[in-house]
Amino acid sequence: MFVKKLVEKASKKYGSNSTNSLRAEDVSPHLAFHYGIPSGSSVMAYDSIQQILAIATKDGRIKLFGRDNTQALLQSDEAAPSKFLQFLENQGILLNVNTNNNIEVWDIDAQILCHVYMVNEEITSFAIIRRSLFMYVGNCLGDVSILKFDQRQRTLLCMQYRIPFLESHGFGGQVPVMHILPQPMAETRRVLIVFRDGLLSLWGIQESKALFTVGSIQLSSIPETREVVSACWVSMFGNKVAVGYSNGDLFLWSIPVISENNATVMNKKEIYAAPNIPFIKLNLGYKLDKIPINSLRWVVSDGRVSRLYVNGFSDSGAYSLQVIILNDNSESRTIKLALPLTEPCLGMEIISSFNDGNKQKKDVLALLLKSGHLCLYVDSDIESFLLKSQSKSTPSIPNHIIVRLPYYESRITAAKLYASSLPSSGPTEEDTLCLPDKFPHFLSVDKRENFVLASTRFEGFTKIKRLYITGHMDGAINFWDASFPILLLILSVKPQQGEEENASGSSVTALHFDFSSQILICGDQGGLVRILSFKKEQFSSETMFSFLQGCWCLMLGIRLLKRAKHGAYNIQTIKLKGAILSASINTESKHLAVGTDKGYVFVIDIKGSSILYQKQFPTEIYSGTISLQFENCNHNGYVKNVLLIATEDSSVIAVEGDTGNDLNNNGVHTKKPARCLLMQTLDISSDGVCTAHLQELTQEKHDKDNTTKHSVILLCSEKAVRLYSLNHAAQGIKKLHCKKKLSGHCCFASVVSSHSSGVGLALLFVNGKLEIRSLPDLTLLRESAVRGFTNPSMKSFQNSNGAICCSSDGEFLMVNEDQEILFFSILLQKAVNRNLEPISRIYQRGIAMPQDSYSNPINTQKEKKKGIFGMVGMGSKSKNKEENNSEVSYSYTVEDLSAIFSSANFQFTDETMNTSAKDENVELDIDDINLDDHIDKPKGRNFSALNKQNLGKKFQEFKGLLKPKSEDKLAAGKEKIEEEKSPGSVDHIKKKYGYSTTNETYIPPSIAKERLNDNSRKLQETGARSSEMQDTARSFSSMAKELLRVSQK
């Protein structure tokens, strides 16, 4: 009750002066820039013309990597995982299908979400017709619809053309479409639809029917569950397809190339082969371990050898990624390579990479691992390994590279970010030296080094807009210019080998930089304190240039002179007890205070490198010293220099700064101990303006005489924020001015300052929520979220001090180990992050499409007929050439395709698709039975088997089902579909079939009788032909037996 009254009193006291504090209009939390690979990555796509790699995450983010080292991050409001990700190549459009079955259309040039197309059914497959604006969408019902991207409206349009399940599959109920593969060399004419049950249906776009089906029967006598998981073409002509199954099977099926007149191009081996049996079953060990084959990728490079990348992993943790050579001259064994991965692979793409030395283009196999890391293999090295393996030699396994941030070799364990108090300016000459193309490419397969790129005009730290200091696990300290979206390394200090104090190389745990004295304090886990005193006279234009040259050579591994490593600073070391957690400097007395995890506080004279005094403050739960700060306050009528100590359990203790004598017996303690995150002193003037003693670059000295101002101590813990009176806390009196309980678990807190208004408090929670509150009333100004912060792989954000840091001007810098860096801005400021436009320019206009064509087989690689693909050749040379020429002459243009897709190929398609599962008992009309002789019968045994099944089915349905049906009638053969109005009334139905429209008398249905007699006659003729065929078959069987008997004699 007492605390509640104090809170109400504080709210009344400072509420009237809220105009002098940070305002809501000054706050604009947003992600300024993202560098690296985002956590939670799951799906990849690649634009081979623009050379853009897209990586989608599980929380709705999409990272883009373009040419010249450019990067950009797209964020959707819908934080849903991605299922399919594909480019409209060279169009600047990226299509993302998420788990909510929404298709997002991203304009990567403007980097905006321009349209969202919602689908009712679950999307199970997605494919784009190459060099067109059309795309196939397959759903869980087995239907396929066609969408078109409207370039003018920047939206997706649904076309009238449909591929219904009953027409493409024809059996059973509903089977999801797993893959949609436009046939190579005939993308605008044929498409292969792969269903989950294993059926492969080759669909003719203009014919609007299935031209060929295969793969629907059980291939083993032992019943087993086999579902299609992956599929891809393994032929340039579209006559071979690889299919991976859930039980580990990998089959290669032969698909005929069908000409315009529906004639199949198959050789004799294919014609007399057993139907529905794959011509090759590859045994790579996946079935033995029950590993589903999740993805397949077929690659042909330089016209030498074709390879199939086979990726599989199971929920039990088993995984394997193998590469096999397909057009091998030897049929006795399979040439393969198992890539030595340490975790499952979620996706793979063949991308282009550049050698940083000579800019030589290379094809690189990019593997997205389960942890979110990207693994790179040079594709030519894999090809060379397979070729050498043909000679039964044992070549070395190709090397791989895990993509990491090119900034440091050791993980960051402590970090500080300091901003300049000077107003931000526009681009300068230094910006031209920091263009992204001047840095090593992020996706380079060559070994990258840390380069130092700085201008000769650089004059010390005062010219830097934002300084980033990092301490690393190996004890190194790096100084970065964070004014740019790409960090510039300006100095690196590494532990000296041979010195006893630094021989351990312990992780850096604490950093503190005082700009007025140019002193850096660094403490590590082993208790070693390093004091770096920089020489101010060093930072002139000439001496700084020579100094940077020495650092550049040092970063490249060239050890020149020790003067280059120590020419800018002097080093002092002191060994203390316990890991160093905090440090502070009294610039007036040159005293240094250091706190450890054991509860010790040491005060050191910097000049003499001697310990003045040490004290220990044991606590109940947490023993560490989180924060230290020297301040002047009024104590019993006297101005004293006190040292404020914040312990890990959120207690505040004050001692004399020079002697260490206790100013009180108790200190200030909370009722419920919680881990302390921040302690900061604030000054409140008489008119309510709140200021903070923040560390800034080129800042003016703060007046520490707080006798004329009302000073408070801001104390932030994981569960609450409190404001105590500084003068009362020095006397051990707990006078609470304001308190705010937090709704959640806070993991980081920082005071931010807007030069145009006042100061505020930024609170980051473990679930990614970000709160910005005003000071000193703690009013909530804005609430936001940091996308990607809640991912389990981001534990370093919550447990490591070096993962998050914030400058005084509200710029967050978050590092996820060696994978990504987030630049997050809180306040509304201009020109804070410079050069964002050059590094974010992903799409490049004016890039011409390659001159290859769909239907030009002359420029493509000729496939070998030897090896494991010898049995599925394209037939004789003359026949192959003739059929290829026919393919060229009958290729459709995009305009022709648009005309076909704009017309409805089936009546009432939408109703049929949506109610196909419900309308199973529809009665048949006698007119639905079409027995005309002029229908073109497709060649091959599979077609005959399929037609017999359909014919037998209709015979069964014909028995007793002569009732009228209210559906349109489909014409036979190649005749156009006649549009008929569906009966709208009972009278219309009666009139159509010869009945009277009145209830008096019924006239015999003469019309129906004539049709029945006609169909009966056709059935008799069909039965006669069937009997004749049966007799022919018996004669052939008898002749075969006689021939066998004669040969055996």
Task: Characterize the structure shown.
It is a single chain. This protein is α+β, with helices and mostly antiparallel strands and 1049 residues long. Helices cover 16% and strands 35% of the residues. A five-stranded antiparallel beta sheet has the order 48-47-49-50-51. A four-stranded antiparallel beta sheet has the order 1-58-57-56. The chain is elongated and about 125 Å long. The N terminus is likely disordered. Residues 591-851 form the Lethal giant larvae (Lgl)-like C-terminal domain. Pfam families: Lgl_C (PF08596). Belongs to the WD repeat L(2)GL family.
Which secondary-structure class do the elements indicate?
alpha+beta
For the report, how would you describe the main beta sheet?
A: 5 strands, antiparallel
Biggest sheet, spatial arrangement of strands? 48-47-49-50-51
Count of runs of 4 or more consecutive helical residues = 16
As a percent range, the share of helical residues equals: 10-25%
Low-pLDDT stretches are: 1-17, 267-273, 328-332, 449-458, 498-503, 538-565, 792-798, 853-890, 909-929, 931-986, 989-1004
Computed CA radius of gyration, to the nearest angstrom: 38 Å
